[in-house]
């Protein structure tokens, strides 16, 4: 917690202990990651309101940089506006605006809403569940240009309304949302050149910038360089961020990725840099990792399916995997620590290769781009990655009959929507507006070819990826 916020709590301690109703705050503080249930049991054990308030205020100053902001949000959420006014020195006009916004949010929550998507039959309920009422075959689908680069600004579908509040959904409305770290390793000592990786790096950079993130790209780092740059990124100021993202494009093996010196850095070492001890600014906030790298050297030949006419069974030419040297181990996340609020999106199953196209980029990143461009305004990250799984699973190369299936690992504690096109002030906003919003189709949607024509069209020069 910032020293200025500590001072505010200290000067108002007598008032807070006298006026605060702590029981009304507990659920909100847990849902936003400031406390967990075990911590609150100790506070709840105090028999009087006075003692609970005292214990809560004493521990609050040690609950991270977001503790004061979330505490004030909890006051508003529980109707204790007078206390929040005093702590934030709010004017009557600001107070009236907050109350009006809360009334509108409650009205929206009680009434519910349906998100309508023209040209696709996807309906979104207030709870955020997306139910496709029709198939994928007839819907327009984003496509990369001849150079392999997606026109993200033109193709991305955006929200047309502000999302309403839901404590079971992460806040994703600040601008910028947070920081994105992109590692792009192309050249290696003793491993093949990763042709096509620059297309992946450029595409994900454009995508996350359009999703209101700031990005930094690091090219061709050895093992020590990866450690250093990731450590610096984790330790930068994330206090005013809703989220952070790490994209790793490299050769890999079971349990980690390779630096350009062909040394390996384990996923465990990567994730530990972002745990609560090493990165307190991100406690309770989503941390997303997208990994385009091999995780072994097994190759998936697939099985014969009765759905032989599934869109995407058309070949992707000359696919090659990124080289690996480690033996496969059939576990989903070997030696990965349990870090809450983390989502790992691996491009392939443990033990298997991941395929990359030398002209267009990797199967995984291409599918991720197209799914996010089309559905990021209406689907949460689990639904998005399920779509990515589907599209990658339908790809097949002409130079090889092998298949691929991504393997996301979800350690998030809430739903996450990217809310493209929505932004609220990062400091003055005192409420969370976190549900999926109504999506507006991109201006290019009507001119894009249908899904079965474009989603898995043939590409050239595909290499074994990473």
UniProtKB/TrEMBL annotation:
Keywords: Apoptosis, Coiled coil, Hydrolase, Protease, Thiol protease, Zymogen. Residues 81-108 form a coiled coil. Residues 302-324 have a biased composition (Polar residues). Gene3D superfamilies: 3.40.50.1460, Death Domain, Fas. One of its GO terms (molecular function) is cysteine-type endopeptidase activity. Residues 1-90 form the CARD domain. Residues 176-298 form the Caspase family p20 domain. Residues 120-143, 300-324 are annotated as: Disordered. Residues 332-420 form the Caspase family p10 domain. InterPro entries: CARD (IPR001315), Caspase-like_dom_sf (IPR029030), Caspase_cys_AS (IPR033139), Caspase_his_AS (IPR016129), DEATH-like_dom_sf (IPR011029), Pept_C14 (IPR002398), Pept_C14_caspase (IPR011600), Pept_C14_p10 (IPR002138). One of its GO terms (biological process) is apoptotic process. The keyword Coiled coil applies. The active site is at 251, 294. Belongs to the peptidase C14A family. PANTHER family: CASPASE RECRUITMENT DOMAIN-CONTAINING PROTEIN 18 (PTHR47901), CASPASE-3 (PTHR47901:SF8). This is Caspase-7-like. It comes from Branchiostoma belcheri. The gene is LOC109469526.
